[in-house]
Inverse folding.
């Protein structure tokens, strides 16, 4: 039988869509028109001057066409506030916050019982895999660059790896390092792609 925490997470996942959660989480006003996707900034890119992400009201998901990040309301909340799914205290705080904001106590937890576990919720945010994939792609491109900035690029790559695989394993922060690197040396990387 699933834990109460798992059932509460399932209830949030089922009842709260990104089109409802995004304005609440970010404080930004976004107007949705029926099932038309709305363009928004990606939270991984930081100050994304040319928004590359969209919220799809029909599926209730956030998807970035730049970094391929796909999140539901739970994954977006975790990313936006910068904590890990394994941090129980922060996850419980998120559950209470979203339940209160969206009035979810009126839905019985019994309707969300099924034979699975929290892995399906956590699978939405597999930073380790996504970080390694982006790091390898960036490293391969950096190897092709033939300018004096090559050393600075490899220093950045080392920093990103150290942050992601250091003692705290902050994959989200490491991912942000990589995107900052690719924005800083955009011309060099574009010449290699």
């Amino acid at each position: 039988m699933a834990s109460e925490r798992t059932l509460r997470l399932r209830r949030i996942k089922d009842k709260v869509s990104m089109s409802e959660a995004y304005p609440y989480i970010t404080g930004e006003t976004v107007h949705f028109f029926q099932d038309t996707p709305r363009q928004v900034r990606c939270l991984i890119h930081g100050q994304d001057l040319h928004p590359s992400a969209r919220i799809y009201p029909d599926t209730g998901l956030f998807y970035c066409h730049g970094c391929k990040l796909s999140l539901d309301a739970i994954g977006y909340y975790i990313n936006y506030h910068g904590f890990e799914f394994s941090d129980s205290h922060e996850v419980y705080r998120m559950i209470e916050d979203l339940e209160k904001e969206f009035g979810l106590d009126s839905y019985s937890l019994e309707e969300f019982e099924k034979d699975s576990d929290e892995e399906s919720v956590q699978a939405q945010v597999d930073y380790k895999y996504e970080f390694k994939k982006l790091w390898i792609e960036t490293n391969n491109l950096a190897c092709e660059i033939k300018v004096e900035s090559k050393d600075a690029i490899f220093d950045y790559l080392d920093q990103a790896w150290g942050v992601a695989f250091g003692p705290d394993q902050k994959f989200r922060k490491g991912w942000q390092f990589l995107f900052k690197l690719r924005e800083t040396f955009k011309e060099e990387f574009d010449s290699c792609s």
Observations:
- The chain is about 55% helix and 5% strand.
- Strands lie at 38-40, 53-56, 61-64, 70-71.
- The radius of gyration is 19 Å.
